[in-house]
Amino acid sequence: MNSKHRKTLQDVFSDPVSPAISWRDIEALFTALEAIIKEGAGSRVNVLLNGRAAVFHRPHPHKETNKGAVKSVRRFLTEAGIKP
């Protein structure tokens, strides 16, 4: 992971939850963690990491991920054994 990925990981786990994390940065973090990412129907993104699977929705029309989605990403990463 490079420094940008580490910053995104810290942002995901920060309290209070940040509403300004770009979805593109979260996907780049998944890729850096060697997750398998597959496109789903519509705006769905299927992610498999360390034996854990999750489905997320890309935000639109905005590029920022809302607080609820960031909490879901945090829970998914924790279940997959990833912490900052």
Walkthrough of the structure:
By secondary structure, the chain is of the alpha+beta class. The chain has a single domain (3-79), classed as Metal Transport, Frataxin, Chain A. Helix content is 40%, strand content 24%. The chain contains three helices and five strands. The protein has helices spanning 3-13, 23-32, 67-79, and strands spanning 21-22, 36-39, 44-49, 52-57, 64-65. A hairpin with a 2-residue loop joins strand 3 (44-49) and strand 4. Helix 1 crosses helix 2. The longest helix has 13 residues, at 67-79. The protein starts with a helix and ends in a 5-residue tail after the last helix.
Read across the widest sheet, the strand sequence of neighbours is 2-3-4
- In whole angstroms, the N-to-C terminal distance is 11 Å
Amount of beta strand: 15-25%
SSE run: HEHEEEEH
- Give the helix/strand class: alpha+beta
- CATH class division: Alpha Beta
What is the overall pLDDT average? 94
General shape:
globular
The CATH topology corresponds to Metal Transport, Frataxin, Chain A
* Share of residues in helices: 40-55%
The biggest beta sheet is recorded as: 3 strands, antiparallel
Number of strands: 5
What keyword list fits this structure?
alpha+beta, Metal Transport, Frataxin, Chain A, 40% helix, three-stranded antiparallel sheet, single chain, 84 residues, 24% strand, two-stranded antiparallel sheet
